[in-house]
Amino acid sequence: MSLKKIRNKIDGIDGRLLSLLNERAELALQVKNLKTGGSSDVYVPDREAEVLGAVLKRNKGPFPSESVKAIYG
To answer: Of 12, 21, 63, 67, which alpha carbon lies 20 to 30 A from 52's?
Structure first.
């Protein structure tokens, strides 16, 4: 594959990643809004650990776990 084609594929992936990250952020804001309207704590360390653990379990590389933690942090 040519360098131009590889870069075009990377650009396309970057666009999809950004779209997915924004979609995730919108859902997280919805969760926050639901929690602030009720009696639930906004920050739940157990849930954060659950999400991070699941993501790390699915990580097959080449990103090391520390990099994945930084992205989700």
So the answer is: 12
Structure tokens at 40: 């639930």
CA distance 68 to 58: 11
What is the token pair recorded at 8? 């075009």
Identify the three-state secondary structure at position 59. Answer: coil
Positions of the chain with pLDDT under 70: 39
**pTM for this structure?**
0.76
Question: Does residue 68 contact residue 55 with C-beta atoms inside 8 Å?
Answer: yes
**Residue 66 main-chain phi, psi, to 5 deg:** -60, -35
Q: Which of 35, 37, 58, 59 is nearest to 47 (CA)?
A: 35
